[in-house]
Amino acid sequence: YSRRTTPSEDFGVEITVKDVGVDPVLSSLSESPSRWPMEFERKQQEIIDLWHACNVSLVHRTYFFLLFMGDPSDSIYLEVEHRRLSFLRNSFSSELAKQAAEGELNGVVASSLKNLRHEREMLYRQMLKKLPEKERESLYNKWGIALNSKQRRLQLARRVWTRTDMEHARESASLVARLIGLLEPGQALKEMFGLSSHSHHS
């Protein structure tokens, strides 16, 4: 029994493809391929919303967003991710309700926020290593950060993946990919990434 690890995070939740089954809408796509582009956009947006709600790793979001761009074969991966996140959101909701009663933040929610903070600190450091000054200034303008303001890199690191609209997600993924050195994700990585949400026998 073996398990592959990937850049994604499981958050202690294991959901196999068998557990998931296939969404009735997705299972009918083979009969009506023309429905897939619209269904992909809907599912992708729901996943982005869930990432935001569940404080999912910025690197995980970036890999997933860039790896699964709408090919019909991506449908099962999107379904697994959607179910995993829905399960995680329910866990978050239960924990937040408990914490509201107790008046303190701990457990999974606090841990996820801490991980996000560490990722943003990593992106902040990478900007100096990966981006020439001119490119950084161009990015500041693009992201609405005044060139004469203080801690511009930190401001930028704190803005990526903070909204759920598609344009913001696209720009965030592009920037994070540049900073972590992810240039052209290949098919092999896609297949391995898909396995991050389920175990398999070797």
Report what the structure shows.
Helix 3 runs parallel beside helix 5 and helix 6 packs across helix 9. The N terminus and C terminus are likely disordered. The chain has one domain. The longest helix is centred in the middle third of the chain and has 28 residues. The N and C termini lie close together (6 Å). Helices cover 64% and strands 0% of the residues. The chain has 202 residues and is an all-alpha fold. The radius of gyration is 18 Å and the shape is flat. InterPro entries: Kinesin-like_fam, NACK_C. One of its GO terms (molecular function) is microtubule motor activity. It comes from Ananas comosus (Pineapple). This is Kinesin-like protein NACK2. Keywords: Microtubule.
Fraction in beta strands: under 5%
Whole-angstrom Rg: 18 Å
User: Topology as H/E string?
Assistant: HHHHHHHHHH
Oligomer: single chain
Instruction: Give me the secondary-structure category.
Output: mainly alpha
* Cα shape: flat
Question: How many domains in all?
Answer: 1
Mean pLDDT score, rounded?
79
N-to-C CA distance? 6 Å
Largest sheet: none
Number of helices: 10
Stretches where pLDDT falls below 50 for ≥5 residues?
1-22, 197-202
Tally the beta strands.
Answer: 0
Work out the helicity level. Answer: 55-70%
